[in-house]
Write a structure and sequence with these properties.
This protein is an alpha/beta fold and about 400 residues long. The chain has 2 domains: about 5-215, Rossmann fold (3-Layer(aba) Sandwich), CATH 3.40.50.12170; about 225-380, Aspartate Aminotransferase, domain 1 (Alpha-Beta Complex). The chain has 13 helices and 11 strands. The strands form 3 sheets. It has a 6-stranded parallel β-sheet, with helices on both faces. The longest helix has 15 residues, at about 120-135.
Length: about 400
Amino acid sequence: MRTGLDVLLDTPAQLATLRGARVGVACNHTAVNAACDHLLDLFAAKGIAVRRIFTPEHGLHATAQDMITVVDEAGLAPTAQVVSLYGDTAASLRPSPELLQDLDVLVFDIQDIGSRYYTYQATLGYMMEVAAQTGTRVLVLDRPNPIDGITLEGNIVQPGYESFVSAYPLAVRHGMTMGELARFFRDDCAIACTLEVVPCEGWDPRTRYDATGLPWVFPSPNMPMVETALIYPGMCLIEGTNLSEGRGTTRPFHLVGAPFLDAGRLARLCRDGALDAGLEGVTFRAATFEPRFQKFAGQVCHGVEIMVTNADALEAYLLGLVVLEAAMRAAPAHFKWRTETYEFVDTPIAIDLLCGTNEARVGLMSRIAPRTLVSGWMPQRLAWEQRRANALIYPRG
């Protein structure tokens, strides 16, 4: 198993096209080879001069928490200009054309986690849009989808619900790598940039990251384990509520709660909801925790810990809906949807932006069962499977 970066470094002809070229790199700390050497150091050793570095949400070393403006990182790469693509406005999410016009090629190497909400794939698409304007070639160094390239879940983003967490018409769990997403953006979303993908070698789309033999570099501050990525397609929905999603603890997205909840009652409701929904592969522990920052920082929260028992059986998006329904029932007078500005958007509200539709929120409030909601999106899931087919690089047997 080799990543696109490792393949590139062993391909003299491709390296030769970068030497002497005006090179920009979009990366963070995940752009490492199998020995955990970083791309910027490896490029320097190969005689490739990087003119400009573009960093996604969380920054070059993922030191910034979610939705926090990345401060000046110039000192982290003194030989190149560092440009953050996560500032304090929606416009900051895209580089200005002037920042790409003097580049011959933009090398993109950032580890994704396989969920539509995870903003690194939106950054890829946005950069491709600007590169199409400036004529800059985009070279994507591919990496595995850590939660596999087979399993698909959820609905497709509906018109009017686009945002940084729903930038393109993808399913929630899209089952694609960054290289495949780049091909999808070019061909299906009509982003007409000059694109080349250096594929992984030896990746089986049926496998998760922990079976690749590659070192896991946490892609962002609250994505410490592959298992966290596995539940994220559902548990990220908690961001759209007034509950803590466990940020500020050692178990982000595994812990869910609030001071106003009864842990035992929520755990029972989650278990009952899972049974009613036919949700397998997970169990719920009544838990008490204290976030050190973000929601309820310094306050004791009561809730549940999500514990994966069978990763192959788990339907992560259904899990998120089951937990939402249980929380609504556990504390109907206190549970609320998040209404503050979310990823630079005021309306629709956060939960609808995450879901790419209002159907989940309206359905849950109307007492439509989570399994019924998921079943209703099956035509969209099937349509997604067909829609993405031409962009796939790795055979799906």
